[in-house]
Design brief:
Length: 373
């Protein structure tokens, strides 16, 4: 199916120029809501932006009633971008869209949004029958998937979700995506003069160091990692530090594996605190669940068929990243996704190859219009 490349480029450039870093997607939410309402669609907009301490942005859900039989699919893309993502100046040359070079491009994920919008335009222009569809545009994906975490899933009856948020070579499909627990651990010692009477104090730095030395961090197993991200506390060298906080995470592909490593960290911290006579506060955030798509689900089978029909060989991969799909899976949805032709995301070298965008568009169009059950 031929898409209108100039229309896509014009729309992409228009959206890219709308600043929408995480927590500040309001103008983008307004833009999308107006676009769909102007075309006669009812738009559900929630208050997720305010709920997470951001602006007046929100998740948007649009139902596009089907004109052919078949399972419903929800197509998803996120509205927010990473930094540096303000004042972007897109440049199109030799079939590639990129920024001027001092910012990201924001193809992640405005290319996904543009693909969904173009598909709807083509369907409208051609009158091609299509399955029942939903469009879900989330916020704050890049900074913790907070939009997906604050969405009311009773609003979405379709059990299949296709995320248009992939980067790199076309054909990659997630076989297993890691879940993550994040920990914030604070040791409370006792302050004293470090030169005159250090024995009257309990140095929280020493307690934290002892705790960290008792448990392994880094690559724990082939599919399990753990990392310390930040440690802070203390002041002058002549003061016994009474408070230290460190943060860490555990990633793995089953919640049982995550919990096993979290338990080791908690035990090490409690044992060190007891040995030194300190106390410890431990906060565990179940950041996101593992994402394990069912290979026999309609969504996976349909994606494989659509890719193969375009001459693209599906490649199942195991990854340790996370995204909205982790949250959707945790709510019982069958999820798949596709690269939109974007490369070097989250860097100033980010770019979008329009030839690959076109191939991905054809796959999505097949998902919308063909019987792939």
């Amino acid at each position: 199916m031929q898409f209108n490349q100039q229309r896509v480029l014009d729309r992409l450039i228009e959206m890219i120029k709308i600043d929408s870093p995480s927590y500040h997607e309001g103008p983008m939410t307004d833009y999308l809501q107006k676009y769909f309402e102007d075309r006669g669609y009812e738009v559900y907009r929630d208050q997720a932006g305010k709920a997470i301490g951001g602006d007046n942005s929100g998740n948007l859900l649009i139902h596009i009633p089907g004109t052919m039989p078949g399972e419903a699919i929800c197509f998803n893309a996120h509205q927010d971008t990473v930094e540096p993502g303000r004042g972007i100046e897109p440049v199109f040359e030799n079939g590639v869209l990129r920024s001027k070079g001092d910012t990201i491009l924001a193809a992640d994920d405005k290319s996904g949004i543009a693909m969904m919008m173009e598909a709807l335009d083509v369907l409208t222009e051609t009158g091609t029958p299509h399955r029942d569809m939903y469009y879900l545009f989330t916020i704050c994906e890049e900074n913790g998937m907070h939009g997906a975490k604050n969405f009311d899933y009773s609003k979405l009856p379709a059990k299949n979700i296709c995320a248009l948020d992939g980067a790199g070579k076309l054909g990659g499909l997630t076989k297993s995506g890691a879940g993550k627990d994040a920990l914030e651990i604070t040791f409370h010692g006792k302050m004293a003069h470090g030169g005159i009477e250090p024995e009257k104090g309990i140095n929280a730095i020493a307690v934290a160091a002892s705790a960290i030395s008792r448990v392994k961090f880094g690559r724990i197993a082939p599919d399990t990692t753990s990392n310390i991200g930040r440690i802070e506390g203390g002041g002058a060298t002549n003061i016994v530090t009474d408070k230290v906080t460190f943060t860490c995470e555990v990633r793995s592909h089953t919640q049982e594996q995550i919990q096993a490593q979290v338990d080791l960290i908690i035990k090490a911290c409690k044992d060190a605190a007891e040995e030194f006579g300190a106390t410890v506060d431990i906060d565990v955030d179940h950041f996101c669940p593992p994402h394990k798509p069912d290979p026999n689900s309609f969504m996976t089978r349909a994606m494989v068929k659509a890719l193969e029909a375009e001459g693209i060989t599906p490649e199942f991969r195991v990854g340790n990243g996370s995204g909205d799909a982790n949250i959707f899976s945790g709510h019982g949805y069958n999820c798949s996704g596709i690269s939109t032709g974007m490369y070097d995301v989250h860097t100033t070298e980010e770019h979008l190859v329009m030839e690959d965008f076109g191939k991905a568009f054809n796959v999505i169009y097949r998902l919308m219009t063909e019987n792939l059950d």
